[in-house]
Amino acid sequence: MIVAVPSVNEMINKSKIKAKDTQIKLIEKAAKVWALDNYKNLSKYSGYYVSVSNLITEKYIDRSEILDPTDNDKKLDQCVYISYDLVTKGYNYKYLNCTDNTVPEAEITMEKATSNSIAVNMVCTDIESIITKYEFSIDNGTTWINNNLLNTYTFTNLVKETEYTIIGRCTNSANKTITKDIVSTTGSINNPTIVQVSQIPDNTVYATNRTIEVTYDNTNVKIPIYYIKSSVSATTILNEIIGVCGTNTLPSSCTAGTVTSMINNTWYKVKGPSIDVTYIEDGILYALTSDSKNSSSTSTYTVANMDNEKPTVAVNLTGTTANITLTDNYRLTGYKVTTTNTTPSTWDTIDNLSTTIKTFNAPSANTYYVFVKDEANNMNQATFTVEESAFCPYSVGNTWTYNYTGGIQSFNNSTCAGNYKLEVWGAQGGATAVSTGGAGGYSVGNINIANNTTLYVVVGGSGNTGLYNSTVDPIGGYNGGANGDSQNITASDSSYGGSGGGATHIAKVTGTLASIGYTSGVTNGNLLIVAGGGGAAGAKYGWPAPSYSFTHTGWNGGVGGGTTGGDGTGTLSMYYGLGGTQSAAGASTYGGVGGFGAGGASVYYGGGGGGGLFGGGAAMHLDHLVVVQDI
């Protein structure tokens, strides 16, 4: 069996090393007690040395505890370095060589460069001593910044895109130093990016509003500050602006405050990395970034072809034709004529003209709405009304004349609604050999007639002359004239009564006056106007003696009435008829009494009464009717 046994020398060496480590711990412990007693004189930043000899002299450690023949009294020449740890906020104690004559080893590197700062890191090492201080300079060593035990330092407030030489220096506990330098360049500041986001960024198309977005990408700026300005008033989203920064060329003297309405030519400080600005008129948006020392170049964006002005509509209406003038400050794109006040779903195209005239022929009477829009979709409208009368072929002053036909005639106004003048003349009563029949009456009045109204016209017929030596009675005039009376008497120089003239009327229903009747005609408002017929002349007769010794010379017929008929005339009032009125028929002592639409019948050779609203009287010959439009 083979057993490996360590050599005696190896065991002795290990024992020495262990003894030495124990003694170093004793020395460092003694230094800690010494530091507690002398803490007021210690520096937290530069470090402090206490020698082993001093610890023995001041009786913090016994010499016999640390010396033996193997150390050859070297420990008496060593020290304990006391330093303050900024991280643990406590003191460290390290046994080391008090007489280190070598400088530390060092490396310096750039940690980060922004547009206004450069951060460097210096790493120093020393086997024999400890590093007690780091210093940095950016002006070639003219001034040094003592960073104590911190080996990283950041230079700020630098100029963008500029090269700097930075020197680092470290010192060890033996007060030996070493310097290292590094060349670094500050970063640039990216200009803000400005794009239109509300629609396709095509400024050749007009719009009522545009949303413009400003975006920042500043990786070289530690805490970037953003500003915007507009040449015209604009709006933003709530809380995106946090300060108002004056009207100078560059922003300055910012006053805190959140706003959404931007005043023209004023700088505003922006909260986030992007902001949306809404325009309703042409303008320029400016944006820049700052790092508190430097500013980026100003980015600009021109907002063009903004249009919030409505197009105009002017309508010139002549009859049924509307000439429509459409104008816009820029470009029209569509119009529409409708009969409803609702925005059209389809439009008639206008090829980007700023003004045009469109002709519209109305198909019917109605209120029409004209809509127009421009390229920016601004809309406007106007209305015009085409009356029924616009479709009427008649002109003011047109006249229609109706003569006697012995029947019922009609008039239709078609599309010509309006005011019409009605004139009617009754027919003349029949005469005798020595007496005249009464003239027909005259009536006139105005009436408003709606479209497509039919009026019925009845022109009265003249009364007939009294017959001589005949048993046939004279027939009364058409439309209510009464018959005359004849007898076959052969007395010399005798004649007999004529027949009454017929009335002339206009009504909304067809028929003669008598057939229409009072209720349908007057009560129900269908009878519009009436002119009575003239009364007939009475008989003249003589009777030979000795039976009768007198001769009557005859009686004239009364005139036809408009409102009231005239009485007959003659030598004996008891023998001539009386005129009718608007409410009662004309009377006669010996003749028949008139009625609605007809004259009284004749007896005893008398003349018949004239026709009318209520008949009476006697008649003449001329008969006609005139209707005149009066608008």
Q: Averaging pLDDT over every residue, what do you get? A: 81
Helical fraction equals: under 10%
Number of helices: 3
Strand content bin: 25-35%
Instruction: Give the C-alpha Rg.
Output: 65 Å
Instruction: Give me the count of strands.
Output: 40
Class based on secondary structure composition and strand pairing: mainly beta
Distance between the termini: 151 Å
Largest sheet: 6 strands, antiparallel
Overall geometry comes to rod-shaped
Which strand order spans the largest sheet, edge to edge or round the barrel? 16-15-18-13-20-21
Low-confidence stretches: 1-5, 542-553, 615-631
Describe this structure in words.
By secondary structure, the protein is mainly beta. It is 7% helix and 35% strand. It is built from three helices and 40 strands. The longest helix has 30 residues, at 8-37. It is rod-shaped and about 195 Å long.
Secondary structure elements and their pairing?
Elements: H1 8-37, E1 48-51, H2 52-57, E2 79-85, E3 90-96, E4 105-113, E5 118-125, E6 131-137, E7 145-146, E8 152-155, E9 163-172, E10 177-185, E11 193-196, E12 210-215, E13 225-230, E14 234-236, E15 241-244, E16 255-259, E17 261-262, E18 268-270, E19 274-279, E20 283-290, E21 299-303, E22 312-318, E23 321-327, E24 332-338, E25 348-349, E26 355-361, E27 366-374, E28 379-386, E29 399-403, E30 408-412, E31 418-425, E32 442-449, E33 454-458, E34 504-507, H3 513-523, E35 527-531, E36 541-542, E37 551-552, E38 555-556, E39 569-570, E40 624-629
Antiparallel strand pairs: 1-2, 2-3, 4-5, 5-8, 6-7, 6-9, 9-10, 11-12, 12-19, 13-18, 13-20, 14-17, 14-19, 15-16, 15-18, 20-21, 22-23, 23-26, 24-25, 24-27, 27-28, 29-40, 30-33, 31-32, 31-40, 33-34, 34-35, 36-37, 38-39
